C-alpha cells in the first residue's frame, strides 16, 4: 500500500488511494512537462478534482491540503506563462474585469445577491453567504486581507428557499481565480 498520505481508520471513509495516486502522477507529469507548451492540466482542473470515498482511504484533510498547494503552484505557473505570452498588463486587466463582475454581484443588497431555490428546496443559507460576501467586499474594495483558504473552505448551512448552490459555487471559483491571479 502507498504511503503518500496517512490512511484513515479501517471503518472511516477516505479518498480512494488508487485514484489519488493516479491523479498525483498525472499532475507531476503535467508540471514537469516542457514549459513551452500546454500542460493538459490547469489550476481550475485541480480545484474541480474529486475522488471516491472508500473505507481506509487517504485522509481527506491531508489530500485536500496537498491539492490546494498544487493548485497554487499551477496557478503561479499559468500566471507566469500569461505574463510572457500576453503581457502583465493584459493579464491583470482581465483579472480586474473579473473582479469587477464579482464585486457587482457581492455588493447587491442582503438576500438578493443570488437566485433563490423554491421554498420546498434546500439551498445555501442566505445569512451565511451574505456574511461571506461582506468579507469579500472588504477584500476587493478596501484591500482587507482575506485568504484563498477562507474561500476554499467556506461552509454554508442549508436553508429552504436559500441561495442556489451552483451560482454561489461558480462565484467562489471566480473569486479564487482572481485571488490567485493577483498574488
From TrEMBL:
It comes from the Bacteria. InterPro entries: CHP03543 (IPR019932), DivIVA_domain (IPR019933). This is DivIVA domain-containing protein.
